[in-house]
Amino acid sequence: MEDHSQFRLLSERRFLPFFVTQFAGAFNDNLFKNALLLLVTYTAGGLFGLSADVVVNLAAMLFILPFFLFSAIAGQVADRFEKSAVIRWIKFAEVVIMGVAAVGLWFGWYEMLFLLLFLTGVQSAFFGPVKYAILPQALKDSELVGGNALVEMGTFVAILVGTLMAGVMMKAPVPGPVIAVAVALLAVAGLIAALRIPKAEAAAPDLRIHFRPLRETWKLMAIARENHNVFLSILAISWFWFLGAAYLTQFPNFAKTHLMGDETVVTILLAIFTIGIAAGSIACERLSGHKIELGIVPIGSLGLSFFGIDLYFNMPEQPIPSDWWMIITDPHYRQVAIDLLAIGIFGGLFIVPLYAYVQREASPDTRARVIAALNIFNALFMVISALLAMLMLGVIGLSIPEFFLVLSIMNLIVAGFVYQQVPDFALRFVIWVLSHTVYRVSHHHLDRIPEEGPALLVCNHVSYMDALVIAGAVRRPVRFVMDHNIFATPIMGSFFRLAKTIPIGPKSKVPEIYEAAFNRIDEELAAGHLVCIFPEGKLTKDGEVDTFKSGVDMILQRRPVTVVPMALRGLWGSFFSHCGGPAFSHLPKRFWSRIHLLADYPVAPEEASATMLENKVKVLRGSQP
Q1: Prediction pTM value
Q2: Which of 166, 327, 547, 619 is 20 to 30 A away from residue 302, measured at CA?
């Protein structure tokens, strides 16, 4: 039996060396950056004649500035050249930078280390686009969510471990040399892993690279805006980094002021939040059914707001001095830990499908540049997050829990705007909820549906939920052909319009709708989409498969495409079927129904006919209605 777990990717060469490379890079970036800040704060007591507080913010700016300056060029490089070679050169640069940094750490040359922190940011800015652009070339579509989940998990665990190790190494009698050896070894480990990454051919080998940072950055924004849904997904991802940066930045003062915690409380809060994001990322694979499922993105955004609001209302009224153990065991503090863990989990559910969606929907020859634009927006949103925090906490005078409450309410507003602009999110959310609550859907041989290109799906018609069950199970978007009367109902009509459903009616009664339907079907197939029809033309009234009408023959005459026979079992007797009377007029006979959706082998268009497909669907469905 095939192993569908994303963890199997960690045993395969097409993914493992890349995963180790990116993990070592994120680990090293955070170890070096945090160790440098701790050394400056506790050893040097400032730098360049500036206070430690100013130096900390200067360091953050130096690390993030390269993402604004060089992401556009980095995207061009990742599209122009073979990607594994780009990664190896980036990792070689890291070895050089960290080799020099090791000397600076050993001898305490802090001014030079700040220049190297900027160069570390440059190296990270160049790695970002190729890091995400290589995944769609290395993985199948069905593995893209799982691969992204592992990358996000690895990134956040690396951030956590790097941050914690910086603190641990600072406790060494002479911390500089210890940190120096660590950053040098991690850089070498990343390069060794990069040497094992398989080739990923250049997406745009004829692309000319222009070293004009500001102009190319502006052009990058135009490329990102070419696909409206991708652009809004980019903004949604950047909004997550806005929220994440806001939470992480406030943890030290939040722990000290509102939990009366020692330094171990800051560490446990960071660990809980990071573990939550890692767990949520990994959960995406199972919840999405091994496909890019936008339906769980609204679940993530709702969870972010709900537990952010819950955090505000569960703050201890009269905090007492605490340590990390009290945060976990004391009931007054434990709910804070649970809320932060949940915020992390729902953050993972929010971000992983969006990354996978951007990778899949971006044009292959501009994918790296689109991801470079994403990195610029991420950096911009994190800067705005810091400015908003300064305004609300410093000028307006909100407390940190009040700031978290404002962020949670803002998140609902932003989510509502994005879902209104991209109806697919709301549509897939409804489909996901129905197919994971009202019904338990088992899929059989859906891999027989072509992964790309046009195809016609034909299925028996049992209930008003048939389209939603199929849409929730099939990995690719499906255009359904349905009775035009359903569009007259306010709620269902609006819903199916969002789903780009094609209305159809009898030729004798509504000839214009009938003709328009066949034209739309032909257009959708010509565009390479999946179209699903229910050739019986109406819901079954006895649970049996009715005669297939000739519409399927007419579709294939106009546009000869592959046909995939499908069958639904288990929906007869549901509230949405005609069992026991018209649908919606009787109580359902059972809840949490076990539904089976089966697919047969594809049929060539020249072999397909209404009669032949009807027989195939009857055999596929069997005796169970």
Answers
A1: 0.78
A2: 327
